Amino acid sequence: MAAMTRVAELGMPRASGSQQGTSLLEALIALLLMGLTLLGFGLMQMESLQANNESYARTEARILLVSMAERIQANPDGVDDYDELSTAGAGDPGGCPCSVAELAARDVAVWADRLEDSSLNAPVGSIASSGSDLLTLTLGWSGAAQLGQNEDSMDADAQALSETLQIRVVP
Fold first, then answer.
1. Which residue, of 14, 50, 107, 170, is most buried by count of CB atoms within 10 Å of its CB?
2. What pTM was computed for the model?
3. Rounded Cα–Cα distance for residues 109 and 54 (Å)
4. CB 98 within 8 A of CB 85
5. What span, in angstroms and rounded, lies between the C-alpha atoms of 120 and 54?
6. CA distances, 26 to each of 3, 19, 21, 22, 38 (Å)
C-alpha cells in the first residue's frame, strides 16, 4: 500500500479499472499495422522482381532477333529462302553449306540452338515475308505466371510473350 501512496504523491494518476490493458492493446494494433506494412513491401518487391525478369527476357529476345537479322542481311541473295522458316522444325546446323538456301536453313538451325541455350522459357522463332524484301522475325516464349496464381496450374497460367522485328533486305 505504501507503494501506491508513493505513486500518488509523485503526481501520477492512478489507473482506473476501465483503463487497464489499453497500452497492450495499442501495442498490438501498432504491431498489426507494422506487419501489414511489411507484407505490402514484400509484395511490392515480388512485383518488382517479376517485372525485372520480364524486362531481362525481352532484352534477351531482342538481342536474339537482331542476331538473326544480321545473319539474314549477310545472305541477301537468300532472302526468299528464309520465308516461312521456323526454329520449331530446325535440324542440326551441320557444316558450311554450299547454296544460299542451305545457308538460310543453317542460319535458322543456329538460331534455334541459341534460343535453346537462352534463359527464355520454350522459345520459338519464326520468319515470314511481308513483301518482296521485307521480313518479319517473331520470337515467342512463355513468361512467368502472374503473382497470386495457383502453383498447381502455373504452366496453364503462364503468359505468352513475343517480340517482333521487321527488316528490309536489299540484294
1. 107
2. 0.69
3. 25
4. no
5. 10
6. 26, 12, 9, 6, 18
Distance CA 103, CA 125 (A): 17
With a CB cutoff of 8 Å and minimum separation 6, the contacts of 106 are 93, 94, 96, 97
pLDDT in tens, 121-151: 889 999 998 777 788 999 999 887 655 555 5
Phi, psi of 51 (to 5 degrees): -65, -40
CA separation for the pair 87, 112 (Å, rounded): 5
Contact partners, residue 146, CB within 8 Å, separation at least 6:
157, 159
The better pLDDT of the pair 24, 98 is held by: 24
Rounded Cα–Cα distance for residues 112 and 88 (Å): 8
Q: What are residue 94's DSSP bridge partners?
A: none
Contact 51, 146 (CB under 8 A): no
- d(Cα 165, Cα 31) in Å, to the nearest integer? 52
Could you read off the pLDDT of 10-50 as tens digits, one per residue?
555 665 556 666 788 899 999 999 999 999 999 999 999 98
